[in-house]
Amino acid sequence: MSQRAVAIVGGGIGGLAAAVALHRQGWRVEVLERAKEFTEIGAGISLWPNALHALEVLGLAGAVRAFGAVEAVGGVRDLRGRWMSRTDNAELTRRFGHPLVVLHRADLLRALIEALPADSLRSGCEVSAVRDDGHGLVVVHRRGESRPDLVVGADGLRSTVRRALWSSEAGPRYAGYTAWRMVTEPLAEPPCEGAVTWGRGARFGYTALPRGRMYCFATASLPAGAAFGSSEYAELLRRFGSWPDPIPALLAAVPAGAVLRHDLYDLPPLPSFVRGRVALLGDAAHAMTPNLGQGACQALEDSVTLAHCLGGTPDVAAALRSYDLLRRSRTQAITRRSARLGAVGQLSWPPAVLLRDTAARLTPTRLTLRSMKPVLGWTAPGGPVTTTNSEGR
After folding, report:
1. Is residue 107 a part of any domain in this protein?
2. pTM of the entire structure?
């Protein structure tokens, strides 16, 4: 039997993870990435226990953990700097099998790339069309055409694959707030605990990266596309420079030109993640706000689940239907939950903020951890992805 071929549109975390999983099952993999390089712009990423379970299936959990940092405690604080809730990372590990690990997105991408043959990666290869011409699937891209047995759309929030084959479905919707992301220079005495501080219509969070750096993020309720007369860094200082310690010191350690800002969107629920022998995963299927830190985690879950389903039958269309059944309800529920948490975090009316903060203080930690089980207690279908291609890495 000839080797089956897959074209994966998008070379981000989800696309590369799917490529690793399918390559190890013996598929001939082609990853089509429109950017000139396979890279992630400088920001951190939180990998929760469910994501590490997915990486364990790929055989990469140990390598990825070596790139990251594990904090002892994280939680939520108020505008006076007082703790409203705290979570012990050791307890996360006890309950869910892995800790919360924070690393630079580029390091995660590198671990995935190193698990793939170099000739499977096509950078500078923007896809312009995906269709079935009656003889099979056709992917039209900058270098010509590909005719794979399977197409995976992992090309993000504004997916070309989704627009081509799900053209009647609603597009991304603005969440009502924007986000800044940044990484500090190494600090002599970095904070030993991570936290998110909830204000009025704004939040500021920070968590440790290796080598004394901190990953920081902030949100503010603003109209989509809002612009400032000053730089993004100056705007951050104006909005958050007087917030509780250690936020001013962290901002002082951020290079002024290293601040990223993006408006936040999620995706209304699709009726299916599949069309024949085409599947969507990650943000292309279920873009969500980052309030639960689950965007990349769910893409990793998608990837190993897709490979599991395809490994169980030679019928690609049937395998994709199983994938859709396993992934759609879960990811759409997490998208809704993340949106609700974001709405709570962005409250600005003082009585509502007071009620929110009081409820956070009165909620026992055990209930917080129990509420996280539907998200973090995910179990990967099947076992580790088996390598069947002796020529692969």
Report:
1. yes
2. 0.95
| pLDDT tens-digit series, residues 33-86 | 999 988 876 689 999 999 999 999 999 999 999 999 998 889 999 999 999 999
Residue 250: inside a domain, yes or no?
no
**CB-based contact 269:162 (threshold 8 Å):** no
Q: Dihedral, CA atoms, 328, 329, 331, 337, nearest 10 degrees?
A: 150
The verdict on residue 390 lying in a domain is no
d(CA 74, CA 383): 31
Predicted local distance difference test score (pLDDT) of residue 389: 41
Alpha-carbon span 111 to 59, nearest angstrom: 11
What residues are paired with 102 via a beta bridge? 46, 69
316-330 pLDDT, tens digit each: 999 999 999 999 999
CB 72 within 8 A of CB 87: no
Query: Could you tell me where the beta strands, DSSP code E, fall in the chain?
Result: 5-9, 28-32, 44-47, 73-77, 83-88, 101-104, 121-122, 127-132, 137-141, 144-146, 150-153, 173-183, 195-198, 202-208, 214-221, 260-266, 274-275, 278-280
Tell me how many domains the chain contains: 1
Which amino acid makes up residue 361? Answer: R
113-138 residue pLDDT tens: 999 999 999 999 999 999 988 889 99
CATH number at residue 371: 3.50.50.60
* Residue range of the domain that includes 320: 5-173+266-376
- Centre a 10 Å sphere on the Cβ of residue 163 and count the other Cβ atoms it contains: 15
